[in-house]
Write a structure and sequence with these properties.
With about 80 residues, the protein is an all-alpha fold. It has helices at about 5-35, 45-60, 65-84. It has 3 helices and no strands.
């Protein structure tokens, strides 16, 4: 355990941020999975829109890199277009 006050605070804030990032990443996986699963159904567009929105929000907040968000969106679109 750190002795320096600022380092103790840094440990706490890092833990909070890690937990938040974990939740966001988990939601990303769920949204993408739901978008792929909904391919061909009437709720396809809505689930795809939500998945893309969450990817963009995660990139904007710095949870994932903007290039990673772009790559994931590209691969998601490829999967959906190939299936549909």
């Amino acid at each position: 355990m750190a002795n320096i006050k600022s380092q103790k605070k840094r440990i706490l804030t890092n833990a909070k941020r890690a937990e938040r990032n974990k939740a966001v990443k988990s939601e990303l996986k769920t949204r993408v999975k739901n978008a792929v699963k909904a391919t061909g159904s009437e709720e396809n567009e809505e689930s795809l829109r939500l998945a893309v929105k969450r990817l963009d929000m995660a990139a904007a907040k710095g949870v994932i890199h903007k290039n990673q968000a772009a790559r994931r969106k590209s691969r998601l679109m490829k999967k959906i277009n190939a299936a549909g």
